Amino acid sequence: MDKLQQLPVTTGPQGGVSPEPGVASVERRAFGLPGVPAVLLWLGLAGVAAALFWWGLTVAAAVVALLAVVALFGFFIVQPNQASVLTLFGRYVGSERRNGFYWTNPFTARKRVSLRIRNFNSERLKVNDQIGNPIEIAAVIVWRVVDTARAVFDVEDYTAFVAIQSETALRHLAAQYPYDDHDGLAFSLRGNPDEVAEALGRELATRLRHAGVEVLEARLSHLAYSPEIAGAMLQRQQASAIIAARQQIVQGAVGMVEMALRELEGQGIVHLDEERKAQMVSNLLVVLTSERGTQPVVNAGSLY
Q1: Is the dihedral of CA 158, 161, 163, 165 positive or negative?
Q2: How wide is the angle at C-alpha 191 spanned by C-alphas 186 and 194, nearest 5°?
Q3: Are 96 and 27 in contact (CB under 8 A)?
Q4: Beta strands 82-88 and 109-114: pairing type?
Q5: pLDDT 10s digits, 11-42
Q6: How far is Cα 89 from Cα 149, in angstroms, rounded to an integer?
Q7: What are the structural domains, with CATH classification, of the chain?
Q8: Reported pTM
Q9: Following CA atoms 213, 218, 221, 227 in sequence, which dihedral angle do they give, to the nearest 10 degrees?
């Protein structure tokens, strides 16, 4: 999937990027020190506080001890396939995606965001297809967060945003195609599942990029006519199948009759006038196209 489009932003203090109202946020890496060296530095700071207290420098020891206590709040852990979004006094300062133990500015607020792959199963929606038939449709959407800044700051709740936009896209998709194309000349929801899934994925990618979400797969999980017309549409499908079968039977029968007449005349077995040819064609068509086995009548006399 293409990288999410980065919209214009303004440069904030210390070269940072601060989004303006109505402008998309852009994820960047947060400042963070490896946790183990930071712990060693913290132990050194605690040792200095203890030494100052031993030497009788109570005020200096209290100040250093307070700094050590505050520094403790800078330690945090990032689990695998998770990220921490850091803000400092209401300003976005970056995201940490690397899993492990880190230390950062203790005054920052941290929000965890899962980067794991998730599934969304939509409810069965009752909508109208392209020609107005009421149908029931549902889909499974596989997605994950790829831009933590957009997921946290550009939408109120990115999980709810995915759910609402997925159902909206599904309703819009159902209105673009007929449930079934009986002529076989255009795409349909039932006849072209791969093309429909691809179209749904494209529309979801456009809608969900505003929340920093990538759509990995989107497929229909349920597709059926609404109960009030299901019986009538089933009869229509059965009638269409019967007509198609009859057409194939008639085409085959005509070909067999033509072959029989051609072989009889070509080999000189019998010569038939037009009336007898018509009678023979009629009899052969009845035999070949009948749904039940026919009982032939054997003519023991003259053909004429």
Answers
A1: negative
A2: 100
A3: no
A4: antiparallel
A5: 333 333 334 445 557 878 888 778 778 878 87
A6: 16
A7: 10-112 (no CATH), 118-229 (3.30.479.30), 237-289 (no CATH)
A8: 0.64
A9: 90
